[in-house]
Design a protein that fits this description.
peroxidase, 9 strands, Glutaredoxin, seven-stranded mixed beta sheet, Thioredoxin_domain, alpha+beta, 160 residues, oxidoreductase, two-stranded antiparallel ribbon, 6 helices
Length: 160
């Protein structure tokens, strides 16, 4: 069952791609005491994720922060080195925290895994976006497979 409004963000360890290299992050601490817009993508460097999803949050970062979002985070079932390379490729500095869920532990804890093993991609994260205030989900939008309609930065901004 996927995470829903009112649920607490699971507290697990993920890695964050930073300019200094990978850094361990406890998701319970990351979400504590602030409003976070988190979006998940099936994979770094994939076409829709690179051309639309990540850019939609970069383009709306200032507006999201003006509406009370303290942090924006992108999460994918990739390792921190891939997420760091993707951030560099996309020109990300500190607008978006790039969270690597390499073993899909966080993804599975949220009930958002998507098995693409038959297509050679393994377990991935469904495309989604959520807003959490002090670790509690206040908004979530999960895309249908192959869709990109409800999880953009614009959609999250409209939901705030």
């Amino acid at each position: 069952m996927p995470i829903s409004v009112g649920d607490a963000i699971p507290a697990v360890k993920v890695m964050q791609a930073t300019a200094e290299g990978p850094k361990e992050v406890d998701t319970g601490e990351f979400f504590k005491g602030r409003t976070v817009a988190l979006f998940g993508v099936p994979g770094a460097f994939t076409p829709t994720c690179s051309a639309k999803h990540l850019p939609s949050f970069i383009d709306n970062a200032a507006a999201l922060k003006a509406k009370g979002v303290d942090a924006i985070a992108c999460m994918s079932v990739n390792d921190a080195f891939v997420m760091g390379a993707w951030a560099k490729d996309q020109g990300i500095t500190d607008q978006v925290a790039m969270l690597a869920d390499g073993s899909a532990v966080f993804t599975k804890a949220m009930g958002l895994e998507f098995d693409l093993t038959a297509r050679g991609l393994g377990v991935r994260c469904q495309r989604f976006a959520l807003v959490a205030k002090d670790g509690q989900v206040t908004h979530i939008a999960i895309e249908a497979p192959g869709a990109f309609e409800v999880s953009s930065g614009q959609a999250v901004l409209a939901a705030l």
